[in-house]
Amino acid sequence: MPNRVVMATAASALLLTMTAAPATASPLPVPYWGHASQVITVIADSPTATTATFTAWQRTGGLWDHWQAVRGPITANVGSDGIGQASETTSKTPAGTWTLTEAFGIQANDGTRLPYRQVGTADWWVSDVKSPLYNTYYHCVPGTCPFNEGAGEDLGEAGPVYNHAVVIDYNRNPVVPGAGSAFFLHISSGKPTAGCVSIPAEDLKAVMAWLDPAQQPVIDIAVR
């Protein structure tokens, strides 16, 4: 009888393990264990690569391996110093998984459900490491801002690359001075960026229309 109990317990444990384990490997190129139902992966072949493979994924079931590619793969431009530990003194795209909670653009919102701000030349992203406003949005007329404007980015002056953009929530909560600021998913100019991720305009338009704040979207940036 004791042996039968042990065998039954072992069989139950095996059944539980088989039930919990995924039947197939996740299609995502990097492991993701979070709650987001929308994940964008940006995967480079090396830490110094200035291009990466961009794919937008939709969770299609409750299990971790149930994902479907809805846009991509697309060739994205990343930082001119590659992907890794970002800072204010490098042009690296920050490695890690970051939420996508808001968007902006020089042009009007053309379909995203993310909170959207249309920007002009009085709209800034603060990169002054000595300012308490570091790595935040701020509205002020040029010449009147309460931070070093030379260390800020005038969003309205950036040109077509910022016609539409999504904020990558790196170093935003908490904000660490000097750890890097103003990281966005924006329209590609065909060249490496200062640390942002950029893709062609039509692809960005489609991705922004797909992003849904109710699905807690994230971007996962990594080296293969």
From TrEMBL:
Keyword Signal annotated: yes
MF (Gene Ontology): transferase activity
Domain L,D-TPase catalytic: 76-218
Span of the signal peptide: 1-25
Keyword Signal: yes
Domain of life: Bacteria
Keywords: Signal
Spans traversing the lipid bilayer: none
Name the UniProt record assigns to this protein: L,D-peptidoglycan transpeptidase YkuD (ErfK/YbiS/YcfS/YnhG family)
